[in-house]
Design the sequence.
């Protein structure tokens, strides 16, 4: 249940033999992820935690019928790895890399749309369908933070996914799929696109949106709700009201210029579309209980 | 990374975008010599990274070499928009008939480069966009096709240009697009793009912002200390930390951009004031040491507030770094901490045992305690 990722989804880990790839492969396996194979050019024929390693994504697709990929490669090679996965026909790609050149992000997003695939990220913590599978860095084993349930969670920031999910669980509810869109200026997948998926998912009964200052994704999502694209109950928390204008607050996408992309603009747009606004992360649980 | 005007113009010149004849100087005497060499009336332009320097007195005209020296002496060393002026661009003064605006930036929603052009150049373009949006021509460029001449011509015609002017504009726009792509820019801007009395088109200004995340392959550009608001932000960036100096007295150390912003918001919510934004996400042991060092350098800091809810960053690794930093740097300010995420039990144990610190159970309790101690 949930969206995009289930325990059946057959996954490729690109960059599996690197430090991070190896470390997180063990945790993704423990979280139930169905990892079909790994890829590191030149390391084909080896194994990582029992997962067979290949030289190309194409080989994993041919031998195991892979459908999704999670990419652990550094910025200079990230676009190449993503295009390899897209060309091999994978329809879900989690691109974790922090520091992808913005013009590479333009190409990645454009190509993904052309072939009808979802690239989640870059600069994000990954995604998880709780109780089934996890792609990336999400600590689903922390039981006070992650419990299975029927709330969809969409965030720009990874650290806030943990914070907000812990309040959802504390309020006695659980999570269907949580998904990190990333903090870069050009995300591979937008808030609106994920809301459309949650709308179709019968299991998800409500959604929590964790936004932040900068860009226009939250405002665009509000427009999408107003035309009936998303009609389920929703709560939003938007970080960054104390961010000074024009300053980069950690995320390259979190810059506010001349009133556009401000927390106030996002909150009023979402509120006008019927979304309940939490002033603090700790209010999310109570607001959810009132409406779901 | 923002380039100075003279650096941007060097890129323009290399690719064939017409710019005024000019010389970059760092002293009043050299400004006089430059004016003599150019042999015309000149304009003396302070080289700073912020906009609005004209209104702030950073641009002066001079008819003689003596005037050029005087004007340069007046601007050099002055504070403009919180930057100290150390470089000047001395240029021939243009005979301006009209001013246009031309820029290429990124449309995050369409995921494409976006051309913005206007016949209302020389002004604050944000103001034009707000007051008379119909005066801005926008064209999205499909990223894989690139900018072709027909589309550049279309922009020229939509601006009302014709004949030689339309051709000159088309040529400049095609070249500007190559600058944008080749140098991994997030913004290239010519404001104003001048039409001179004798019908030529010249880039009178140049703004080129290179995307920081692409500097690893733009090896001709090094983001040195002069391009940061202060020396501490520069050092933070070298350590891989995101640091922004703020006005308050609560020193903040956090992991993750979103959580850090939220902690600042909560401090304000409870009536306190943060001294800084500091994110040591993806933290290693050393990162937390440098982070503590940076926060302690700020004399305004009365309380230190640490918050982590690590993903990639393991809480126990962060705690080891913090404990080490506390032992060596011996902060006199009280420390409030909330440490969660992978390895949180070990992390709390480390802080208790090594430095006698009792972590708080959640972020809001920690923030309230810090605000109280800071006198908020």
Sequence:
């Amino acid at each position: 249940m949930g969206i995009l990722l289930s325990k059946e989804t057959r996954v490729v880990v690109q960059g599996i033999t690197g430090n991070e790839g190896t470390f997180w492969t063990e945790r993704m396996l423990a979280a139930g992820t169905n990892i079909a194979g790994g890829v590191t050019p030149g390391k084909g024929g080896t194994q990582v935690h029992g997962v067979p390693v290949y030289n190309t994504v194409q080989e994993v697709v041919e031998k195991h019928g892979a459908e999704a990929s999670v990419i652990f490669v550094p910025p200079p090679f990230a676009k190449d790895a993503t295009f390899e996965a897209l060309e091999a026909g994978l329809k879900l790609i989690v691109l974790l890399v922090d520091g992808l050149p913005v013009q590479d992000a333009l190409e990645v997003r454009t190509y993904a749309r052309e072939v009808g695939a979802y690239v989640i990220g870059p600069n994000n913590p990954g995604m998880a369908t709780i109780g089934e599978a996890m792609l990336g860095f999400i600590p689903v084993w922390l039981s006070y933070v992650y419990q299975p349930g029927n709330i969809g969670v969409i965030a720009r920031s990874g650290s806030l996914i943990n914070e907000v999910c812990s309040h959802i669980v504390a309020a006695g509810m659980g999570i269907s799929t949580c998904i990190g869109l990333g903090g870069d200026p050009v995300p591979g997948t937008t808030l609106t696109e994920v809301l459309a998926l949650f709308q179709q998912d019968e299991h998800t009964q409500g959604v929590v949106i964790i936004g932040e200052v900068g860009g226009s994704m939250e405002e665009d999502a509000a427009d999408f709700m107003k035309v009936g694209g998303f009609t389920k109950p929703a709560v939003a928390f938007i970080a960054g009201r104390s961010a000074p204008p024009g300053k980069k607050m950690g995320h390259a996408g979190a810059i506010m210029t001349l009133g556009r992309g401000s927390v106030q603009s996002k909150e009023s747009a979402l509120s006008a579309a019927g979304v309940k606004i939490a002033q603090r992360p700790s209010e999310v649980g109570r607001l959810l209980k009132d409406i779901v | 990374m923002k380039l100075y005007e003279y650096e941007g113009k060097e890129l323009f010149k290399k690719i064939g975008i017409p710019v005024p004849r000019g010389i970059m100087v760092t002293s009043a005497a050299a400004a006089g010599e430059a004016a003599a060499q150019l042999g015309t009336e000149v304009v003396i332009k302070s080289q700073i990274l912020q906009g609005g320097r004209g209104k702030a007195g950073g641009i002066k005209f001079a008819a003689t070499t003596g005037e050029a020296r005087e004007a340069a002496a007046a601007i050099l060393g002055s504070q403009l928009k919180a930057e100290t002026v150390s470089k000047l661009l001395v240029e021939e003064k243009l005979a301006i008939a009209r001013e246009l605006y031309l820029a290429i930036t990124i449309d995050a929603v369409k995921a494409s480069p976006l051309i913005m052009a206007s016949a209302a150049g020389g002004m604050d373009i944000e103001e034009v966009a707000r007051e008379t949006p119909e005066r801005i021509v926008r064209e999205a460029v499909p990223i894989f096709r690139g900018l072709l001449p027909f589309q550049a011509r279309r922009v020229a015609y939509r601006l009302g240009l014709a004949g030689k002017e339309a051709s000159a504009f088309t040529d400049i726009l095609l070249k500007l697009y190559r600058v944008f792509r080749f140098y991994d820019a997030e913004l290239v801007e010519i404001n104003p793009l001048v039409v001179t009395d004798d019908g030529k088109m010249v880039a009178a200004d140049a703004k080129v912002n290179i995307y920081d995340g692409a500097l690893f392959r733009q090896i001709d550009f090094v983001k040195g200390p002069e391009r940061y608001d202060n020396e501490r932000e520069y050092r933070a960036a070298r350590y891989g930390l995101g640091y922004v100096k703020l006005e308050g007295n609560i020193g903040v150390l956090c992991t993750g951009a979103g959580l850090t912003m939220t902690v600042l918001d909560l401090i304000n919510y409870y009536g306190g004031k943060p001294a800084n934004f500091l994110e040591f996400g993806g933290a290693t042991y050393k990162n937390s040491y440098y982070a503590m060092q940076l926060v302690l350098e700020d004399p305004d800091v009365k309380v230190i507030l640490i918050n982590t809810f690590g993903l990639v960053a393991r809480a126990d690794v962060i705690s080891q770094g913090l404990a080490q930093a506390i032992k060596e740097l011996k902060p006199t300010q009280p420390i409030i901490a909330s440490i969660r995420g992978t390895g949180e039990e070990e992390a709390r144990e480390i802080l208790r045992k090594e430095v006698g610190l009792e972590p708080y159970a959640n972020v809001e309790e920690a923030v309230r305690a810090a605000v109280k101690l800071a006198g908020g």
